[in-house]
Specification:
Elements lengths: L1 H34 L12 H13 L1 E6 L2 E6 L2 H10 L2 H18 L4 H25 L7 H30 L4 H32 L3 H40 L3 H16 L1 E8 L7 E5 L5 E6 L2 H10 L6 E4 L6 H10 L4 E7 L4 E10 L8 H17 L2 H23 L9 H13 L6 E7 L2 H8 L1 H17 L6 E6 L2 E6 L5 H15 L4 E3 L2 E3 L3 E7 L7 H17 L5 E3 L2 H20 L5 E10 L5 E12 L3 E3 L5 H7 L2 H22 L8 E4 L2 H4 L4 H12 L6 E6 H6 L1 H14 L2 E7 L16 E4 L1 H5 L6 H16 L2 E4 L5 H9 L4 E2 L22
Parallel strand pairs: 14-15, 17-19, 19-20, 20-21, 21-22, 22-23, 23-24
Antiparallel strand pairs: 1-2, 3-4, 3-8, 4-5, 6-7, 7-8, 9-11, 9-14, 10-11, 12-13, 16-17, 16-24, 17-18
Helix pairs in contact: 1-5, 1-6, 2-3, 2-4, 3-4, 3-7, 4-5, 5-6, 6-7, 7-8, 8-9, 8-12, 15-16, 18-19, 21-23
Length: 841
């Protein structure tokens, strides 16, 4: 890894040298092809050595100008540049500018590559400036064309200088932001325009009467000295203000993390840097990092590798409390850490304590042309570090670490526990199962628990009641197991139980499953409601899962589905044959998705009979699946799957259209007969679909039937899932002329008192009450109550599930109008409904 990084650095340095050589080659080509023969445009003529001396003098007078997040060097070098364009030949200007600047750069001990770059780019911009000046002012003289040519040449050369610098930085540092380049160009435009206008004015004085030049030099140098003094005083004031604000932020913020973020934000602005970072050292050896940058990135009190923190602390010491960090850093761990964070240049100061160093503060990646930190910056950072150390007292550090650990424990708990029930979640449960399976000789049982018909409760009583129900069920599950067992909520209404360290997993699983199912025999409190609920449980053993945690959970899940298919409210133990049944069920789901397209969804019709006369007055459309291999499948075998997969809506739409078309066919076959009436069942998904009413209207119009020929049946639980929406949709259907029937009345969670507020036409008495008529007990009295209530509300009553002549006789005695059931007529094809004929006497 270290070898690769060295190669990367060497390759970047090589690319910079290639870039410098390209600049030098371009400068030579442009100069000797277009600029070399250019003669002075005005007198007096200046030799190259005069230009060189002027450049040396100008570069000594430098002011560092700060603009937003950039730093720029403001010097008088533009003045000799302008003089050279006007009073020197191209050769003298190029030689003098490069020679004088090289002397200054060498005295500053610049690296060879930087010295070569500065000389090459200066030669290039001089050549371009000469060409632009001579293009605009080709003749000698000191008129406006010369002024315009010089200004244009200087602005172009300044922009070219910025682009060359940006290119070198991008190559050496792996990129440069476009916004930074724009800032550099903007600031250079202001500085260059100011310097150029002063230089042109001075050149005009020299061209007119050179003896007046000292008179111009005195105010210019005075202005420069005053401006430099003003900038120095301004920077001193800004430093004091920065230290005051940073110290106030540290002392007034109640939380250490908040205080550090405030100080770092101010530090980034003050030093015009991308990154500001504090690492605090705690007594227990756990270093904590708070960082702002680059950009919007932030980290608050995050753990740092102790080796990295120690190596960073070793960079500073009592003898040298603040340093400019060389890149790459000498230490391997520290180097990798800084390179990963994108640190290119930085300064680091220690946070001194009374007994030990309490941390370090680092500022990195300065914006602008000044890509390194000055001695003044180091002194300012040292002052900030000393002030921060006083504000960050030991007790505040201990408080911060304690709060951090509490927060980490809370986040860890939230990551591995269900927020509603506070049970372990799926991730923690799987982790615990894997841990137990890894222990040699341990046998594990897993129970998969699914709440039966939870969706019905959730839809009918609301999500708040559903959540309260899940919390109560979680409490009952906890009371059914041992302290060492694990109860988890996997999601939705699914729970899981792990029984570790059991001698006989299946026997232990059966015992706990029995406790669970028995614990749910009594109603469960959900908020202010008592809800009757049960659960289906699947049991699996680690013996059958080959100690594979994922397989063990899948086996328990398969066993749970088997329990549901056998009637719910029970438990089943996993057997290998069950997996085949699940695969078969999955195959049916895949085929069901294509059944509507292939016209395999068909209808049968069961007559509804007037009990006194035996006349068929209506029919109910019952959906069937004409499977190519399994034959005619009843709805119980595929409607639940359709609801799970979301296919119930297209199936329901298909049933509605076919039923309406069948009504039209019966009317056409017997135009003089009584108008046929068709009952069609609705699902919750259809009722809550915003476009459902429009589809009803379209189906009636396409079939050409009267709206009152259609009766839509819906159950109580569907109505109560979203009462406001349900009533609104039913009112719209009533406005169309469609009739509404309440199916399976008496089996829901509601009372009889809500009936008067619903737009109903028909009540259908559920089969369990019809079955209980012969006993003459509660069911018989309930049917009498329904009949009395229906008469008071003006509703028709249909008794469902009639299977014997005795039931017909009792219903007649109770003056029930209509009935439906296998005794009266089984479901059949449209031609066998007996519409208009008597089926019972």
């Amino acid at each position: 890894m270290l070898v690769r990084m060295r190669r990367l650095r060497l390759s970047r340095a090589g690319l910079v040298w290639i870039f410098v050589l390209a600049l030098a080659g371009g400068a030579a080509a442009i100069f000797f092809s277009f600029a070399a023969g250019a003669e002075p445009l005005a007198t007096p003529h200046l030799g190259w050595w005069m230009i060189a001396i002027a450049f040396v003098a100008a570069e000594v007078c430098v002011v560092h100008l700060e603009f937003r997040r950039s730093a720029h060097s403001f010097s008088l070098a533009d003045i000799p540049f302008v003089f050279g364009l006007i009073f020197s030949s191209a050769g003298s200007l190029a030689l003098g500018a490069v020679a004088g600047s090289a002397v200054v750069y060498a005295s500053r001990r610049q690296p060879p590559v930087k010295l070569a770059f500065n000389c090459a780019q200066l030669w290039l911009v001089v050549s371009v400036a000469v060409i632009i000046t001579r293009a605009i002012a080709p003749d000698t003289g000191s008129g406006p064309r010369l002024w315009l040519g010089v200004v244009a040449a200087m602005l172009a050369s300044g922009a070219l200088t910025i682009l060359c610098i940006a290119g070198a930085i991008a190559i050496s540092e792996g990129g440069m932001r476009l916004g930074t380049v724009r800032q550099m160009l903007t600031m250079d435009l202001v500085v260059t325009l100011s310097n150029t206008t002063i230089a042109v004015a001075a050149a005009l004085v020299v061209a007119t009467d050179a003896r007046a030049l000292p008179l111009l030099a005195v105010p210019a140098l005075t202005f420069f000295a005053l401006y430099r003094g003003y900038m120095s005083e301004r920077q001193r004031h800004e430093k004091l203000e920065f230290l005051y604000e940073a110290n106030r932020t540290l002392s007034r913020s109640p939380e250490v993390a908040e205080a550090l973020e405030g100080m770092l934000a101010r530090s980034r602005d003050a030093f015009r840097a991308e990154i500001a970072e504090v690492i605090l050292f705690h007594r227990d050896g756990v270093p904590l990092r708070t960082t702002l940058g680059p950009g919007d990135e932030r980290a608050v009190m995050q753990r740092v590798d102790a080796t990295v923190a120690a190596e960073l602390a070793a960079v500073v010491a009592d003898a040298q409390p603040v340093v400019s960090l060389p890149m790459p850093a000498a230490s391997g761990h520290l180097r990798a850490y800084l390179e990963e964070r994108g640190v290119r240049h930085a300064m680091v100061a220690m946070l001194p304590g009374e007994e030990r160093t309490i941390g370090t503060i680092m500022v990195a990646n300065r914006f602008g042309l000044a890509r390194s930190f000055s001695p003044d910056d180091l002194k300012l950072l040292e002052a900030l570090a000393n002030n921060a150390s006083v504000a960050l007292q030991y007790d505040r550090l201990e408080q911060a670490v304690t709060q951090l650990r509490g927060l980490q424990e809370q986040l860890h708990h939230q990551a591995y526990h269900d927020p509603l029930t506070d049970l372990p979640n799926r991730a923690l449960f799987m982790e615990r199962v894997r841990h137990e399976l890894d222990l040699a000789g341990q046998q594990v049982a897993v129970l998969f628990v699914d709440v039966d018909d939870f969706k019905t409760v959730n839809d009918s009583l609301g999500h708040g009641v559903g959540d309260a129900l899940l919390v109560s069920i979680a409490g009952r599950l906890r009371r059914c197991v041992r302290p060492e067992d694990v109860v988890a909520r996997l999601g939705g209404d699914e729970f899981a139980v792990m029984l570790p360290g059991v001698g006989d997993p299946i026997a232990s699983g059966r015992m706990i499953a029995t406790r669970i199912t028995q614990s749910l025999d009594l109603p469960v409190r959900a908020g202010e409601n008592l809800v009757s609920v049960h659960a289906s449980v699947g049991i699996a053993s680690s013996v059958q899962a080959d100690r594979d945690a994922d397989q063990l959970i899948r086996n328990a899940d398969v066993a749970m589905y088997q329990a549901k298919s056998k009637g719910k409210a029970r438990f089943e133990v996993f057997e290998s044959s069950m997996a085949e049944e699940i695969l078969r069920r999955h195959g049916i789901k895949e085929e069901l998705a294509k059944a509507v397209e292939r016209e395999q969804i068909v209808l049968e019709y069961q007559p509804i009979v007037e009990l006194d006369t035996g006349r068929v007055v209506a029919t109910e459309a019952l959906v069937r699946w004409q499977h190519p291999l399994r034959g005619l499948m009843p709805p119980s075998q595929f409607v639940p799957l359709a609801e799970e997969t979301g296919l119930i809506a297209p199936i329901g739409h298909h049933v509605l259209r076919q039923a309406c078309l069948q009504v039209r066919a019966w009317e056409d076959a017997d135009p003089d007969g009584p108008p046929p009436r068709m009952h069609v069942n609705l699902s919750v998904a259809e009722l809550h679909d915003p476009g459902f009413v429009d589809r009803i209207r379209t189906a009636i119009a396409e079939a050409g039937i009267r709206p009152d020929n259609l009766v839509l049946e819906i159950t109580e639980t569907q109505l109560l899932g979203d009462p406001a929406t349900s009533v609104q949709r039913l009112e719209l259907l009533r406005d169309l002329g469609v009739r509404i029937a309440l199916d399976d009345f008496g089996t829901g969670y509601s009372s009889l008192s809500y009936l008067h507020s619903l737009p109903l036409d028909i009540l259908k008495v559920a089969k369990p009450f019809v079955d209980g008529l012969m006993g003459g007990g509660r069911e018989s009295r309930f049917v009498v109550m329904i009949l009395d209530l229906a008469r008071a509300l003006g509703l028709e009553v249909i008794a469902e599930g009639i299977e014997t002549a005795e039931q017909v006789e009792v219903l007649r005695e109770l003056k029930t109008e209509f009935g439906q059931g296998y005794y009266l007529a089984p479901p059949g094809a449209a031609s066998k409904t007996g519409l208009g004929t008597a089926l019972a006497g």
